Amino acid sequence: MKIETYYEMYRLIRQECYLDCLKEVQERNLRRIRAQKKIRIAFQSSCLAEWVGDALVRKFAENERFDVTVVIVWQVNTDFDKEIPALIEHFEQSGLPYRLSDGSVKPGDFDIVFYTSPYMEILSHWMDRDIPLSTLVCYIPYGFYLADIQKMQFNLFAHHICWKNFTLAKGYDIMAERYSDIGAYGMVYAGYPKLDGLLDPACADRAAWKIAGKGSVKKIIFAPHHSIAEKPYYATFAANHRFFLAYARAHGEDTSWVFKPHPMLGLSCVKNGVFSSLDEYDAYCRAWDALPNAKVEMGEYLAYFASSDAMILDSVSFMAEYLYVHKPALFLTREGERFNEFGEMVASLLYRASGTDYAAIEHFLDVLIERDPMKDARENFFRQVLDYAAEHRKSATQFIYDDIVCSIGV
After folding, report:
1. Model confidence, pTM
2. What digits encode the pLDDT tens for the residues 55-73?
3. pLDDT by residue (tens digit) across 152-209?
4. Which domain range does residue 60 map to?
5. Is 229 part of a structural domain of the chain?
6. SS3 for 164?
7. How many domains in the chain?
8. CATH value at residue 265
9. I need a labelling partner for 77 at 20 to 30 A (CA). Which of 161, 215, 373, 405 fits?
10. Helical spans, DSSP H, in 163-308
11. Residues 298, 204 share a domain
């Protein structure tokens, strides 16, 4: 029996023997790669919100041993007409070499592939069945694991074929031992390369708020999730989207807003009847953009994080990401939401209010942003669990690069 892909190996090898086979495959690949003059590396990207950042690609490209390519791989649950053109424009402007996953480029064309999406079964031409055993697989999550969906976070096919599974925070290995069939194999605590930009003191200067810096204006990010009717439930947008737009309009002189919706929110709104069409959703977004004190931001957001005063959200990964800027956040709750162990700890550090409790939301905006009585608790958690730059004495980008180079022996 000849096995050529990870998919075949995963399906055909008995579980008690699988990990030994995986290790042997990876060691053979390493022996071959070390002898090559050029090592071909690909970075998979499906949308800007999930992109790990240009810096990591550039870091590898600077080393003459590596031949680096970004591969734009669309997935079926995203808005192709918005996400893919935005990615193409981004990589055109950045000057990074990129290819489209139109069938002309496959995972097997590379020695090492970095995936940012673990949902390989919905990736065009880069599906779970397309990865040969000759390719080493690395994974950098596009967000923090906070939701109560541990199988999807630790026990998907993608997790079972990783050579390097770079984790964002301490404690992931403990959950992996509990929920993954292969335990914490391949897991390396690196931190979050997407957030390395916050280490730059000038990061905040790149934000373009409409009325930033005028008097005592509060700069607020509103970041709604897409899970209107998907379990576990988080999105409260169906109930409060009109309230937030009206509030921003009524407070045009003392608040400035960035509307940062999840990339899948528009499709979810149409699917679940919040809006009758994507055109109607787009009209809602244009209403935000038309305000003198608000704008819609679909792409890079670190500068807005760094320069904001607060965030209001029900987007899950942002619960942890926003802790890196040491500002107060209000998480909007609803019935049916569930978190894993790590998510429960993060949720306990945020101000919380029902997504329909407009009085509590206004209290956060009027009072809690300035008083911020939970600040010390957030800072203690950040130092103990999230501050990868202090622990490693380097950025996550540098850590991942150094780890790969050391492992290969370049």
Report:
1. 0.91
2. 999 999 999 999 999 999 9
3. 899 999 999 999 999 999 989 999 999 999 999 999 999 999 999 999 999 999 999 9
4. 6-196+390-408
5. yes
6. strand
7. 2
8. 3.40.50.2000
9. 161
10. 172-179, 237-250, 265-271, 278-290, 302-307
11. yes
